[in-house]
Amino acid sequence: MRSLLKGKEIVLGVCGGIAAYKSVELLRLLIKDGAGVRVVMTRAATAFVAPMTFEALSARPVMTSLFEDAGGEIRHISWAREADAVVIAPATADIIARMAHGFADDPLTTMILAVDAPVLIAPSMNPRMYQNPVTRENLRSLKGFGFHVMEPESGPVACGDEGTGRLPGPETICEHVRRLVLPRDLAGESLLITAGPTQEPIDPVRFLSNPSSGKMGYALARAARRRGADVVLISGPVSIDAPIDVGLIRVRTAQEMKEAVLSRFDSASIIIKAAAVSDYRPVNVSDHKIKKADETLALELSRTPDILRRLGEIKGDRLLVGFAAETEDLVKNAATKLKEKNLDLIVANNVQMSDSGFGVDTNRVTLIFADARQESLSLMSKDDLADLILDRVKGIRGSK
Ligand code: PMT
User: So what's the pLDDT on residue 399?
Assistant: First the structure.
């Protein structure tokens, strides 16, 4: 289990909207991430979810009134003082209007006026209410005051209307909270990351590929973005959701990946190639599905462009990280690739173990640096490994 928010105090403000049920899951995710969470509810919110639900899950008292007996503690001030971040989800048009005008007539608005920590607002309401010029103006004011405002999602809403106004998913909101409270130590860097497999077509319904799921590359993209970097992710065909605020470019073949990488290369300061690029492609691609005929069928294959090797030739002062998928002589083979492709770091994974490499959520790798240093790492989640690789990349950057 990851504990990215360990030791952090988060206040979760819940307002009276149908999406209040999603706050329960958000609370669970924040706690799973290691945070201590205190919940403040408006009176309307208690009509949608019982305070007892939040109390049981947070193992803390829930604030629903300014006037409840807290044994002498002035909670709306002490909770504000101790918060590392406040997240208001769902934030209704009403709370947005009252916050924009400095109201302090309930526990949530009163606490907000006393908070120094970052405040994240996740609006949720009927699309017409969201587009109303008054709501737009109130949100503009709040942004101007330094509040962080998320864009609601589009789609059908509870009342049958369709448009922008749905509360984003709890994981998306939780990721924004992480970004607000965790160090942005990669701010100013531009990362170009590749992920997933390539597919080299044989005919309209068949292709050559490999079992890369994209999990490793997407974990790197999420972690780099969370740490403040600008991220472009060039991805082969995978079925993972696009990371938030990452420029995602989808490609299919090695040739397409090469073109996408080279067209973004100039603006990158760090390039990480986690994609599993096919080394060969069929020389002839049939326009029609190849019919079953003889007992055997020979495919003639030719080499695909070696993207990483090309990057190594033109990298200048950019930092270049490759991956190596090996089934034998892990360190020796990966070290040869590091040298031949002019890399700063190579991540060597033994792809024959069932708990590391392709498809799984965990990885066990050896890092090999350009100065021949090696670091053998034990089994860990791809999310943890992504942060560790970025730590090492920062270390190399600092020592250059
Ligand atoms: O996607 P997952 O399911 O999470 O799995 C992760 C992973 C196993 C795919 C990943 O961790 C990994 O090892 N990626 C590299 C796989 C690979 O292609 O290894 P390689 O040893 O064949 O290639 C070495 C490096 O050259 C890689 O950085 C590769 O992106 C690059 N390459 C390879 C061939 C080619 N034509 N062009 C390239 O740029």
Answer: 81
